[in-house]
Amino acid sequence: MGKITVETCEIEGLKVITPTVFGDERGYFMETYNYNDFKEEGIPEVFVQDNQSSSKKGVLRGLHFQINFPQDKLVRVVSGEVFDVAVDLRPGSATFGKWFGVRLSAENKKQFFIPKNFAHGFIVLSESAEFCYKCTDFYHPNDEGGLLWSDPDIGVDWPLPEGMTRDDLIISDKDHLWKGIKDYSNGQ
User: Fold this and answer.
1) Considering the entire predicted model, what is its pTM?
2) CA proximity to 143, closest of 71, 78, 76, 68
3) CA distances from 167 to 72, 170, 172 (A)
4) What is the pLDDT of residues 79-102, one digit of tens each?
5) I need a surface site. Which of 112, 128, 154, 187 has the fewest CB within 10 A?
6) Cα 30 to Cα 4, 40, 110, 140, distances in angstroms
7) What secondary structure letter does DSSP report for 170?
């Protein structure tokens, strides 16, 4: 019996992973990562760093990427719910500039595999969320890149948390300053 189920997405390389959860009256158990299972499902990457963040309702983080040291990421939520987004930035890709989003929550236990050369971001839909992710390269603070979360040329359809408007979203100053995909594709 497979320990994970892997769904491919309309953008090649992106994968949504659902672990097998073993539950009884005591609670549940699941493997969140097993190299052999992931390799068997076509995800042979080796992860070198784990990160975790906590954010409150309405926080939008992204769209981020590393420029010279790109990272594959395996992301999941351990508390709360987010809408997670990846934007294809692979040179020559048939889906360059396209986005895909998936709801990740402590309840559905889904994970999202995002290959190198994708921008990544998420919005917190619950009162708060704890977000965990594995990376295949170390974080390099001087290598940050980003795209404007609201770029109309990408057109991410961000769901809004209940009772909030776009004006209520909590976005860092840095994330307000990123440029759009047209600037990115022109090498700026």
Assistant:
1) 0.94
2) 68
3) 32, 8, 13
4) 999 999 999 999 999 999 999 999
5) 187
6) 10, 18, 12, 32
7) B
